[in-house]
Design brief:
Blueprint lengths: L1 E6 L4 E9 L13 E4 H7 L4 E2 L2 E12 L2 E11 L5 E6 L6 H13 L7 E8 L5 E7 L6 H6 L1 E7 L7 H13 L4 H9 E6 L4 H6 L24 H16 L2 E10 L5 E4 L15 H9 L20 H8 L5 E7 L15 H18 L5 H17 L29 H8 L19 H4 L10 H13 L16 H10 L21 E7 L5 E3 L18 H5 L19 H7 L8 H5 L8 E5 L2 E7 L10
Parallel strand pairs: 10-11, 10-12, 12-14, 15-18
Antiparallel strand pairs: 1-7, 2-6, 3-4, 3-7, 5-6, 8-9, 9-11, 13-14, 15-16, 17-18
Helix pairs in contact: 4-10, 5-10, 8-10, 11-14
Length: 622
């Protein structure tokens, strides 16, 4: 958090944070900053609360290595004079808060006998990284050795404080007096690392450690001196696995671009008995916790995530249930708390639900687990028949974890987003639709795979009608459809494809206004589009069309045909491919190009645009 002093009562202040890096943020979906007023807290007893007006997140003109920075802007009115105001992204949880909390556990006469606190490693700055062991220590040594192990960590990214609140709820549950907690302690040994990056938390970093590196990108080959906590954690898991079977690893994070709480796992593509086993635990957790969304879960392992904790632990140690649990900085998008913010109580409750799910998953009566496993197998086979294990049920969609908490600037998010918007043929996808229903595992969010056809959607629909899928569907979500589905949707809506002719009837008039584009090169010569304001026509060339040809273009070729000219497409061809004009967004209305001017006019139904666009050697632009 940061502090503001000497504010005047009743005065409106506007804050612009100009070095944000992610292409999108929940601040455009209702997220508000947190504010702590010292005088207000002294008078009313209320501390951190959501505040701010005119909250917006957009791209600015400040350049960086790969693209531009982004700006977060918000305004507020100070209520008290000479007040101290604190602002935060999420409810703060500092290193001092953790030390006080662990000290209170050790001083508690009941909880202290259920927990052991040890030093895992010393950080670069000499701070202690603690590891907690929670189990029933008074048991017989043979029973203690026969227990299975679990490893749970949090705060590898210092700015994701919601992970610490979930971890606090989990520790409170495991050390509590309930019967369920005693059953867990009698059957498992929990190794818990509450704060994996103490240096980053202390100095106020958002993602990095004191060395300026993202520790969740160093698990593949960590350096003993630069990444001591990661090296110590891997060695601890290795020794822990020698003593007992380790059945689960979970790394808790926060997410700034998606709502709800969800899990990222590692997909087992083989046809072994463990196929789809990694999805059973998240499925049970979805049924237990109201704020958990199975539709947002993803199990795809990307190349840019091969050095993250969940992937390295899954591959090197063979732990099937290796997860990254993400909690949104905003809140849920469904249920009774839809479109509200998570509070610390909600996040702590998520830790309780996590422990309840462990009980259900390893219950001696495996009827519930077997039923969910059979359900996943049936839905997987029905959603994408003939595509094999690579097309299994991607509940959050293929590629969804590009924007997860594992996101790093080194992953080149601009290229990832560009690839995500393109299909297999390299063309940009211009329409998306949402499917919902009972078979939400197969049809929610995204299609099972980019290779799936419309037949998979119909199979999933039939599965949903049969009642085998019991999944929560969101009212505002969307799923990517195949090319056949998109074409049929466009035909049903009356939108005629480019260059196609209707049989026996005149084509419907498009609602999109006519657009004439004028493109000039650096010498201010018109290179493409209609002549504007008396500008000189382009020089004659075999690859360029005359002004009369551009004013009266030839009919567009039928869909799927190859162009017959190497020159630029006529204005009518571009106009027909524009589709519906998008609504104005903060990034489009507040950002202007630094190399040219936006000169827009509306006269006689024609929108004239003058701009500078880089041309290739053929005189066309992409």
């Amino acid at each position: 958090y940061f502090k503001v002093m000497n504010a005047k009562a009743g005065c409106r202040y506007k804050f612009n944070i100009v070095n944000m890096m992610k292409p999108d943020s929940l601040y455009n979906q209702g997220l508000c900053p947190l504010m702590y007023s010292k005088k207000h807290a002294e008078a009313t007893g209320f501390g951190w609360q959501r505040a701010g007006e005119d909250v917006c997140y957009y791209q600015n003109q400040i350049k960086r290595k790969s693209g531009n920075f982004y700006t977060l802007t918000f305004s507020l009115v100070a209520e008290h004079a000479d007040d101290e105001l604190y602002f935060a992204h999420c409810y703060p949880y500092t290193y001092s808060d953790l030390q006080k909390y662990l000290w209170s556990l050790e001083q508690d006469p009941q909880r202290s006998g259920r927990i052991r606190r040890r030093l895992l490693a010393q950080t670069l700055a000499g701070n202690s990284c603690d590891v907690l062991t929670i189990t029933s220590f008074s048991s017989d040594p043979k029973q203690l050795k026969a227990r299975r192990g679990m490893v749970i960590s949090a705060r590898v990214h210092p700015g994701e404080t919601n992970a610490s609140w979930m971890m606090k709820g989990l520790i409170d549950y495991l050390t509590g007096p309930s019967l369920d907690a005693k059953i867990l302690r009698d059957n498992f040994v929990f190794k818990i690392i509450p704060m994996l990056n103490p240096d980053g938390v202390i100095v106020g970093n958002y993602r990095c450690s004191l060395s300026g590196q993202d520790l969740n990108r160093q698990w593949l080959e960590p350096h003993r001196r630069m990444h001591p906590t990661v090296v110590a954690t891997k060695n601890m898991i290795k020794c822990f696995q020698e003593d007992r079977p380790v059945v689960m690893f979970c790394d808790m994070h926060g997410h700034s671009r998606k709502k709800n709480i969800f899990i990222y796992g590692c997909n087992n593509k083989t046809n072994s008995p463990n196929r789809l086993q990694e999805r059973v635990f998240p499925r049970i957790l979805w049924r237990n916790a109201q704020a958990f969304s199975y539709d947002d879960c993803s199990f795809k392992v990307q190349k840019c995530k091969e050095s993250t904790a969940r992937v390295v632990v899954w591959r090197e140690f063979g732990i099937t249930n290796s997860y990254t649990m993400e909690a949104s900085f905003c809140g849920p998008s469904f249920g009774q708390f839809a479109n509200t913010h998570f509070s610390p109580a909600h996040l702590e409750a998520m830790g309780h639900y996590f422990c309840d799910t462990i009980l259900d998953y390893w219950d001696p009566d495996q009827s519930k687990v077997n039923g969910i496993f059979k359900e996943l197998l049936a839905l997987n086979d029905a959603s994408a028949p003939g595509l094999g294990e690579d097309s299994d049920v991607e509940a959050a969609g293929e590629g969804k974890d590009e924007s997860d908490s594992d996101f790093s600037d080194d992953d080149q998010p601009t290229k990832s987003l560009r690839k995500r918007r393109k299909g297999k043929d390299g063309k940009r996808k211009t329409s998306k639709s949402k499917g919902s229903g009972n078979g939400a595992i197969a049809t929610s969010k995204n299609a099972p795979s980019s290779r799936s056809k419309s037949a998979s959607a119909s199979s999933a629909a039939s599965t949903g009608q049969a009642g085998t899928a019991i999944s929560r569907s969101e009212s505002s979500g969307s799923s990517k459809t195949s090319g056949n589905a998109k074409s049929s949707a466009s035909q049903n809506s009356g939108v005629q494809a480019k260059g196609s002719k209707s049989s026996g009837s005149a084509p419907k008039r498009s609602l999109v206004p006519r657009m004439s584009v004028v493109v000039r090169d650096r010498h201010n010569r018109v290179r493409f589009g209609q002549q504007q304001h008396g500008a000189n026509p382009p020089q004659s060339s075999k690859n360029r069309k005359s002004e009369s040809d551009l004013a009266n273009p030839a009919p567009a070729p039928p869909p799927g045909s190859k162009p017959t000219s190497n020159g630029p497409r006529p204005a009518a061809s571009i106009r027909s491919s524009l589709g519906t004009l998008p609504a104005a967004s903060p990034s489009s209305t507040q950002q202007h190009s630094s190399t040219g001017r936006d000169v827009g006019k509306m006269s006689e139904g024609v929108l004239h645009v003058s701009c500078f666009i880089s041309l290739n050697r053929h005189g066309v632009f992409s």
